[in-house]
Amino acid sequence: MNPDTAAEQHVFLGLGSNLGQPETHVLRAFDGLARMPGSRLLRRSSLYRTAPVGFVDQPHFVNAVAEMRTVLSPEALLVAILALERDHGRVRSFANAPRTLDIDILLFGGLVRHTDRLTLPHPRAHLREFVLRPLAEIAPDCDFPGRGPVWELLAACEPQGVTRLGGVADAGTQASARMRSASLTQ
Ligand code: ADP
Ligand code: MG
User: Fold this and answer.
1) DSSP characters for the chain?
2) 113: Cβ below 6 Å to ligand 1?
3) Among 71, 88, 92, 151, which residue is least crowded by beta carbons within 10 Å?
4) Which residues contact 57 (CB under 8 A, 6 or more apart)?
5) Each residue's pLDDT tens digit, 26-53
6) Of the listed 40, 43, 49, 90, which one is catalytic?
7) Which of the following is catalytic: 44, 102, 128, 178?
8) Is the CB of 119 under 6 A from ligand 1?
9) CATH architecture of residue range(s) 9-185
10) 42 lines ligand 1 (CB under 6 A)
C-alpha cells in the first residue's frame, strides 16, 4: 500500500445551489473541492435539476455529487466545506431556505456517527432522489451502512422531480443497467 494514501478515507459529498447562478456555483464548488488540502477529488457527477422540497416557493435547485479521498477527519472536512459555502456567500436563515451553495457529507467511509455537529451517513441522503441519482451515476455499488447499495435505495425512492442537466456521460450506464435488472426481478 502506498504510505501516502494509507490514511485516506473515501468520502461522498452532496452539492446544491438555488440562488444566483446555481450551475456556476456548483461547478466552482467542484474546483474548490479539487483544491482542498489533504484531499483528492476523484469524480464529479453530472448536474441535476431538482424541484424544491419543504419550502417550495423558491427557485429550482442544481444538485451534484463529488467522490473524494481525504486524510482530514470528519470534523476537519466539515469545517473545510462550511468555509467553501461561506466563500460562495452562503447565509443561513431558516431550514430549507434558498442557498448559494450547500455541501453535505453524505458518506465518510463506512463511519456511523451522531454528534451535535455531524451525523454520518447524512440522515436524509438515502431518501432523496437528488442525492441518490447523481450518486448512482458515479458509484452505484457504494453502500449506506445498514441500508444497502445506492442503486437499491434509488430503485425504492419515489420520483421527486429530478432531471439530469448534462455533464459526464460514461457513468450513468452502470446505474441504469442495474435499475433495469432490479425492475425485471420485482
Ligand atoms: P441542510 O444541509 O440540512 O439544509 P445546513 O447546510 O444549514 O442544513 O447544515 C446545518 C448543520 O448541519 C451544519 O452546520 C452541520 O453542523 C450539520 N450537519 C450534521 N450532519 C451533517 C452532514 N453529514 N453534512 C453536513 N452538515 C451536517
Ligand atoms: Mg448542508
Assistant:
1) --TTTTT-EEEEEEEEE-SSSHHHHHHHHHHHHHT-TTEEEEEEPPEEEE---SS-SSPPEEEEEEEEEE-S-HHHHHHHHHHHHHHTT----STT---S-EEEEEEETT--EE-SS-EES-TTGGG-HHHHHHHHHH-TT-EETTTEEHHHHHHHSPP-SEEEEES--STHHHHHHHHHHHHHT-
2) no
3) 92
4) none
5) 999 999 999 999 999 999 999 999 988 7
6) 90
7) 102
8) yes
9) 2-Layer Sandwich (3.30)
10) no
What is the number of the ligand closest to the CA of 11? 1
d(CA 165, CA 137): 13
Q: Is 113 a catalytic residue?
A: no
- Cα 84–Cα 44–Cα 146 angle in degrees, nearest 5: 90
Query: Confidence class of residue 173 from pLDDT cuts 50, 70 and 90?
Result: very low
Q: Where are the domains of the chain?
A: 9-185
